[in-house]
């Protein structure tokens, strides 16, 4: 939720009414609470809690940054709830116990009166969430990790004034968070500021408890449970790549023979050993997915071949669930919907210890899942609906969304506010309870890729929020006195992102924004135009933001602007690479369809131009501050190698020297 202290005009006022209320409701504003220079904070705790102690500490620290000296004391809660009171003569009797019955576990009631402020919750995590809500109402902007990304309000020697409000704040999803996030304390703390409560990354237990984060670990680890060095001794534990009458052979590479009793015994024994280190750490789930393959890696032996990949994957997960059940381990088993397991199988049921993990990586991110104009997303929506039906008796279905994945987006940072918000409604309607994003590809370099993270976190608490409202409120936070340049920038960025992230006329399967494929379909020529126009639009966007910078802007705003300008110029250069790459493969596709050698020669020449443009884009990425470990540079080298291999192949056909 974003709070603006000084608003003018009916339009901005309406926006702020939506953003103030996490549940979309509007609060009366008859007066305001003026925070004095010195104030008392009293905490009523249900039990000893690292999270509650941290909430009190954070509240005092944030008040201190706006020149308010806060003293804290703690008392034992008598009514079994958690509460913080800011102001003199605190009384636990002011806790709205009846209203808390409507609160979810980490929801909260924020009551801002003329004389004091209270935050009440059923949990310590709810109190911490309320603290960050209150800070945003004071005028804070949590833009990216670290003290540099925590922008306090500009008060010019005064202390904050907070309009009176009474809010029951409940999240739209019980669990919200990040996969593969950075687990260092600075980043984990930023996730807490986003009011996330789930992190799928190894994290110290004390840090997780302090920040109120449920921890999950793991990934594509199924292969680790059946070591390949066992292949020579017992090849029947490993998959057969084709049926025997198609010359099938056992392969000791990926996955396993899911109907092999020996494989099951080996997997379960290894799984028990792998779980031991996590049993005392309160880990919610160890993700043990099948291998990440673009083509099937499953078994075609006589007892497996009648089961499609999804059913074979489910059989493997049932092996793990059996261990959980027999040993009474308080953990869950994720079932991954991904690549060749994108649609549920029809023969094997999900065990009760499992939950769905929906990972629609090859969907179109230029449209929401329910956008009627997008044929590819209609297939992914159908997949989600079918999985929802299969898991209808099992709780805590997860998403594994890709809004923050710079691997998928080849280093680009598309801004997708309305897609993210529209998808939230769809996911909620289809049984998702843990809405979680993958953050990878070195998406940890502030302030890169932060806007999607911000809108993702805000939308979790405000179901009425629109992309345009988010943009206006964010711009007003960045530059209260003149938000128009930032409104224009974010609106145009969102518009260009939606166009350039179109992914249509492709089949459900292995493809993404890196794998621009040879095609003869009309979409190929259309995307050449889209990428060219997107590149020009990004250049114009960077020019406009650069010309808008004023000498009196704060250094933090100037620095942020220069970072956005450099990032946008890189994206312009990368879209040029995509334009040339798309044009090249269109001509190769035409040659393969028509045997027109002149078209192939043009395609080869365009590939050479693409390689030169990739060098320009890499230099632009360095100018934008991408570090050497950023995925983009690995992609750039890999794409250059692939293009050179294609050039060598096709020049042998054209006779070029």
Short description:
This protein is α/β, with parallel strands linked by helices and 657 residues long.
Q: CATH architecture of the largest domain, please? A: Alpha-Beta Barrel
The average pLDDT score comes to 91
Strand-residue proportion? 5-15%
Task: Give the end-to-end Cα distance, rounded to a whole number of Å.
Answer: 62 Å
Treating each run of at least 4 consecutive H or I residues as one helix, how many helices? Answer: 17
Write up this protein:
This protein has helices spanning 10-20, 50-64, 97-100, 124-138, 185-193, 205-211, 261-275, 309-326, 375-390, 417-429, 450-459, 467-478, 484-500, 522-548, 555-594, 597-623, 631-654; strands spanning 32-34, 38-45, 69-76, 82-86, 108-112, 117-121, 141-142, 150-151, 161-163, 165-169, 175-179, 198-200, 214-219, 239-240, 250-251, 285-288, 333-337, 354-358, 397-399, 401-405, 432-440. It is built from 17 helices and 21 strands. The chain is an alpha/beta fold and 657 residues long. Helix 10 (417-429) crosses helix 12, helix 15 runs antiparallel to helix 16 and helix 16 packs antiparallel against helix 17. The longest helix is centred in the last third of the chain and has 40 residues, at 555-594. Strands 11, 12, 13, 16, 17, 18, 19, 20 and 21 form a nine-stranded parallel sheet that branches. The radius of gyration is 27 Å and the shape is globular. The protein has three domains: 10-169, 2-Layer Sandwich (Chitobiase, domain 2), CATH 3.30.379; 175-222 and 268-294 and 308-466, Glycosidases (TIM Barrel); 516-654, no CATH class. It is 43% helix and 14% strand.
């Amino acid at each position: 939720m974003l709070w603006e202290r000084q608003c003018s005009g009916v339009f901005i006022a309406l926006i702020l009414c939506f953003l103030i209320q996490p549940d979309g409701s509007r609060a009366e504003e008859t007066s305001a609470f003026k925070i004095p220079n010195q104030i008392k904070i009293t905490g009523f705790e249900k039990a000893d809690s690292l999270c509650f102690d941290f909430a009190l500490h954070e509240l005092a620290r944030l008040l201190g940054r706006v020149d308010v000296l806060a003293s804290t004391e703690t008392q034992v809660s008598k009514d079994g709830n958690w509460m913080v009171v800011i102001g003199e003569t605190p009384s636990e009797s002011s806790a709205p116990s009846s209203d808390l019955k409507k609160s979810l576990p980490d929801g909260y009631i924020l009551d801002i009166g003329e004389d004091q402020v209270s935050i009440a919750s059923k949990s310590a995590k709810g109190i911490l969430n309320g603290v960050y809500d209150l800070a945003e109402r004071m005028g804070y902007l949590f833009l990216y990790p670290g003290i540099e990304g925590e922008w306090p309000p500009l008060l010019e020697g005064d202390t904050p004034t907070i309009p009176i409000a009474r809010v029951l704040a409940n999240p739209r999803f019980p669990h919200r968070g990040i996969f593969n996030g950075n687990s260092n304390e600075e980043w984990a703390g930023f996730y807490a500021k986003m009011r996330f409560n789930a992190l799928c990354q190894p994290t110290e237990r004390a840090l997780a408890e302090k920040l109120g984060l449920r921890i999950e670990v793991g990934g594509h680890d199924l292969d680790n449970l059946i070591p390949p060095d066992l292949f020579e001794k017992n090849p029947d534990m490993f998959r057969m790549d084709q049926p025997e009458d198609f010359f099938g052979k056992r392969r000791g590479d990926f996955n396993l023979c899911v109907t092999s009793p020996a494989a099951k015994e080996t997997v379960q024994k290894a799984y028990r050993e792998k779980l031991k280190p996590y049993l005392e750490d309160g880990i919610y789930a160890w993700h043990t997915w099948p291998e990440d393959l673009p083509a099937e890696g499953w078994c075609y032996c006589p007892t497996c071949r009648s089961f499609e990949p999804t059913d074979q994957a489910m059989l493997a997960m049932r092996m793990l669930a059996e261990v959980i059940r027999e040993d009474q381990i308080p953990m869950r088993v994720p079932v991954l919907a991904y690549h060749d397991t994108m649609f549920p199988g029809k023969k094997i049921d999900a065990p009760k210890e499992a939950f769905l993990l929906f990972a629609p990586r090859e969907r179109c991110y230029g449209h929401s899942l329910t956008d009627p104009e997008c044929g590819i997303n209609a297939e992914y929506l159908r997949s989600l609906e079918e999985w929802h039906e299969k898991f209808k008796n099992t709780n805590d279905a997860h998403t594994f969304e890709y809004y923050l994945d710079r691997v998928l987006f080849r280093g680009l940072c598309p801004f997708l506010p309305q897609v993210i918000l529209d998808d939230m409604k769809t996911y909620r309607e289809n049984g998702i309870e843990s809405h979680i994003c993958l953050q990878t590809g070195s998406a940890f370099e502030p302030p890169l890729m932060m806007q999607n993270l911000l809108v993702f976190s805000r939308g979790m608490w405000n179901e009425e929020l629109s992309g345009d409202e988010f943009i206006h409120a964010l711009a007003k936070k960045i530059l209260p006195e003149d938000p128009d340049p930032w409104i224009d920038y974010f609106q145009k960025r969102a518009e260009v992102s939606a166009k350039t992230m179109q992914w249509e006329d492709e089949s459900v399967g292995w493809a993404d924004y890196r794998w621009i494929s040879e095609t003869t379909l009309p979409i190929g020529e259309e995307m050449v135009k889209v990428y060219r126009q997107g590149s020009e639009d990004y250049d114009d966007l960077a020019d406009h933001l650069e010309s808008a910078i004023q000498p009196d802007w704060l250094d933090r705003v100037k620095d942020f602007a220069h970072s956005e300008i450099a990032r946008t110029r890189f994206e312009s250069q990368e879209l040029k690479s995509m334009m040339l790459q798309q044009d090249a493969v269109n001509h190769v596709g035409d040659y393969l369809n028509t045997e027109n050698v002149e078209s192939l020669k043009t395609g080869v020449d365009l590939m050479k131009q693409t390689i030169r443009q990739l060098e320009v884009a890499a230099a632009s990425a360095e100018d934008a501050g991408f570090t050497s470990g950023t995925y983009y540079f690995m992609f750039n080298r890999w794409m250059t190698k692939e293009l050179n291999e294609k050039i060598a192949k096709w020049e042998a056909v054209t006779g070029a020297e």
